Amino acid sequence: MFLDKELDVICLLQTELKHSEPLLYKSNSFCKKVSRYIKSINSFSDNSGHEALPPDYYSDELNCMFDVMRVNDTEIRKTYNPVKIRERKIEQELKDKGILQPHMTLIVNSESDDVQEHTYKNYKRNCKRVLNEHIAKIDIWQKEHPRIQNKGLLICDETECYFDGHVIYTGNETFAYFGEKNVIELHRPWMDSELVEKAYDSKLDFIIWFSPYKPHSILLEKYGLLYPSIVVLDTRYKRTDFINYDEEKLLKYQWFDHRVNFDKSMLQTLYDESHGIIDQMVGIFSAMQYEYFYQDKNVTIDSAYIKKIAASYYPGLSRLNKNLASADAEQKRKAIIDKAASRQSEIAEIASKKEFEKEIRNAHPDAIPLETIIKNVNVLAGFLINSKTFTEDDIVMAYNNIMKIKGDHTDEKTLTNDVYTLLTEMNSEDAIAKIMKQKSTVPVSRKTAKESMQKALDEHTYVPK
């Protein structure tokens, strides 16, 4: 299995050094010297056999020796690691079938969908256990190589990136992040008091922290973040600038903090509540995470929970979705568009006719401005379109009669109301009364108005069509 042998780690480190420079923490002369050590690995003797006494590598010429150790975040206890168990099972099956030969190196992806398999709690526990075991054997190193002064550890960190905050996988290799800070706060193991402080209280002189997977996170690429694959630490002297990370917040890519089956009904609900708008869908998804982690974890994650969060955080979107989802919404929208187009066409056609202008000019013995004539034509055209029960002649005659009763009108609204009143209440004195209440440019008595109206009615009988 790949990385089972210390030499695999060394070879992977050498490959990384071809295109990546180590981060020298504090960047003193000793860190630079250690950096040169790992670039001159061929000068070291390989003592990494399982039967050999530690350390794994030593060099009298360089006055340096170190052990190789691996850390992961899947070990539940020393003898139980679900991921490693699956790897061994696959390895054995391939051996039994004669597929895996001794000269082959096997790389297995045995990950499951259980996010609890990878936790900071496991990471911290495994790192502390393995580190303490190696530190406890330093006396053996010194006994085997009493003349070598510089003692260190090459730590192969097989975990992926951790973050201070919450990073949510939203599908199609995309992520959403939120936390208490405005930027993603990367977990740095070489700064973590839980992981490395013990080394500064030991006989170790240096640590080479090698993280082959962390720099290649999809999330780091998305946000344009860089992460060092190799960090060199000088552990000879006390240090106080450690970071105490909050274990509850150091989570990896996740769908809440436990496995939640995102079934078809939940997917449909998320679509319905966002109406398929990607930004809104991610917003609701993120709001669910925030509500869960920072407000209340004692909830059931289901369709009802999605609806509740959507209604709480996006009430306006819910109302919009109901309108969009209406059965006749599209028909109404089309009807409005068609009516508007038809109205524009009819107005253009009617306004182009000269009959209205002629009738209006006959109703006015004195010349009136052309703008007024055009305005009144549009008024009549509007009536003709909105009220299909009246003919063109009906409307023109009503307009002329109004002019005889009240004189010229400059108020289009008043004129419109008067014409409509006369058309709809032809045989009622209420029509005259209503019209007389409007302001007239020519004072007219009620008696004169009534006589003029009656004369107009005698001359032309209005029959709604």
Question: Could you characterize the architecture of this molecule?
Answer:
The structure is a single chain. The protein is an alpha/beta fold and 465 residues long. The chain is 48% helix and 11% strand. The chain has 18 helices and twelve strands. Strands 1-11-10-5-4-3-2 form a seven-stranded mixed beta sheet, with helices on both faces. It has a three-stranded antiparallel beta sheet with strand order 9-6-12, with no helix packed on it. Helix 14 crosses helix 16 and helix 16 packs antiparallel against helix 17. The protein is elongated. It starts with 5 loop residues before the first helix and ends in a 6-residue tail after the last helix. The C terminus is likely disordered.
Structural class: alpha/beta
Number of strands: 12
Mean pLDDT: 76
Order of helices and strands: HEHEEEHHHEEEEEHEHEEHHHHHHHHHHH
- Helix fraction bin: 40-55%
- Read across the widest sheet, the strand sequence of neighbours is 1-11-10-5-4-3-2
Q: Beta-sheet strand percentage?
A: 5-15%
